[in-house]
Design brief:
Length: 221
């Protein structure tokens, strides 16, 4: 995305020089102005999109434009922070079936990077409620399938997990306390991990899972 901004700014400069001639300070100023303006327009666009996303309303499906927003915002954030991602074990990810993706969470970049790199899988994430209050990002990520979870109430947590699981073929878990909730659901028999679960090769578990419908119905009754 940053490369696109640079190319568009360069194109504007070339057009200007073609018609008005080359003046060093004007050319540099135009390039910088165009680049900054494109970044501002980028933020304004997603701010407008966020206005139409309400975190108070239940989500029934992932929004394609919100997913695009998360992916593009991730690209811009990583670019400006000079973050480079290195991926191993993508060939081990299942295709054509659901699975549970459990990963470390060391920074705010993690969920966005995972969604960006696994864009073909339509991943849904469990997130802490405070993330929904982040300007622009909170609402857009909610529309993309990042659902806030009540970590103090197992019943509400289960409902959120089931909703997230229905949104896409992958359910992403990052927060330690959320993983504790998931472990509790395993203990209650509400979720069953299939025996062919494995690893990406660097200690990152990839679990195939199924929800036990009879146990869920009994728990939510």
């Amino acid at each position: 995305m940053i490369l696109l901004f640079l190319l568009l700014s360069l194109a504007a400069v070339i057009i200007y020089v073609h018609f008005a001639g080359f003046v060093m300070w004007k050319t540099l100023l135009l390039f910088a102005g165009c680049f900054i303006a494109l970044n501002v327009l980028f933020l304004l666009f997603w701010a407008v999109v966020a206005i139409f996303v309400s975190t108070a309303k239940p989500i029934t499906k992932q929004s394609g434009i919100c997913r695009l927003g998360c992916i593009s915002v991730s690209s811009v954030m990583c670019g400006y922070a000079w973050v480079r991602t290195h991926i191993h074990g993508m060939d081990k990810l299942p295709t054509g079936e659901r699975f549970l993706f459990v990963c470390n969470h060391r920074s705010m970049f993690d969920p966005l990077i995972v969604m960006s790199k696994l864009r073909d899988y339509n991943i849904s994430f469990i997130s802490k409620p405070s993330n929904m209050r982040i300007p622009i990002v909170g609402r857009v990520s909610y529309g993309a399938g990042f659902l806030p979870i009540d970590r103090e109430n197992n019943r509400n947590a289960l409902k959120t997990i089931l909703t997230a699981a229905d949104l896409g073929p992958i359910l992403g878990i990052t927060q330690r306390s959320t993983r504790r909730i998931l472990q509790r659901l395993f203990e209650l028999g509400l979720i069953r991990v299939l025996p062919e679960s494995g690893s990406t090769g660097r200690g990152r578990p990839v679990h195939r899972y199924v929800f036990v419908k009879e146990a869920m119905d009994h728990s939510l009754a």
